[in-house]
Design a protein that fits this description.
- It contains 8 helices and no strands.
- By secondary structure, the chain is mainly alpha-helical.
- The chain folds into 2 domains: 37-114; 129-200.
- Helix 2 packs antiparallel against helix 3 and helix 7 packs antiparallel against helix 8.
- The protein is extended and about 70 Å long.
- The termini are far apart.
Length: 200
């Protein structure tokens, strides 16, 4: 005689619902996008920090240089020299911090102290010159005259710097450049006079 047996344990218990595994491709893609966004965000913050450090350095360096140049010409504000120097030192440190320890290069300093570049930066509309005006100023010597004047100023600054530290060789070279630019300016003026007053 056989004993009646009920359903087995496997038959009595409901099947276990197994959740489908997440698609690895989508998960990786989401993680990749998040990583890209994080990198872009970090790069943007780093770029903003660099730009701010560069702008602050430009302001402090130009103010210090302007006051120093005025002092060498007999004007300026001597009592502001030390506070300006302290601000400039802090700006250089902030620049190095933003640029992973790198100090501003000589090229960067030259660009900051380029008076023409600074003028265009402060008044960007002056570079918007129509072609007719550009040709006219080239023809009448305006550009050449401005270049000669700029050369005279730079040579004069080099002469002053050489005198302050007793560098006679550099002073002689700057003096030669100074008179060369003066002759260039005189030539431009003479050419302009001949154009405006042609002989009949």
């Amino acid at each position: 005689m056989k004993c009646a047996t009920g359903p087995s344990r496997l038959q009595r218990e409901p099947p276990i619902a197994v959740a489908p595994a997440p698609a690895m491709g989508n998960h990786a893609a989401c993680g990749g996008r998040a990583m890209v966004l994080r990198v872009v965000s970090e790069q943007s913050e780093a770029d903003i920090k660099k730009q701010r450090a560069h702008d602050q350095l430009s302001r402090d360096l130009r103010r210090f240089a302007a006051n120093f140049l005025r002092l060498t010409s007999g004007s300026g504000k001597a009592l502001e020299l030390l506070p300006q120097l302290e601000k400039l030192s802090a700006s250089i440190k902030a620049y190095a911090d933003a640029y992973d320890g790198a100090l501003p290069s000589q090229k960067t300093v030259h660009q900051i102290l380029d008076s023409r570049a600074a003028l265009i930066e402060y008044r960007p509309w002056i570079k918007d010159v129509d072609e007719a005006s550009r040709r006219r100023w080239e023809a009448d010597g305006t550009y050449a005259r401005n270049d000669a004047v700029a050369g005279i100023i730079k040579a004069g600054l080099r002469m002053v710097a050489s005198e302050l530290v007793d560098q006679l060789t550099q002073h002689s070279a700057a003096e030669d450049l100074f008179y060369e630019q003066i002759r260039r300016l005189e030539d431009v003026r003479e050419k302009s006079r001949r154009q405006n007053n042609p002989k009949k």
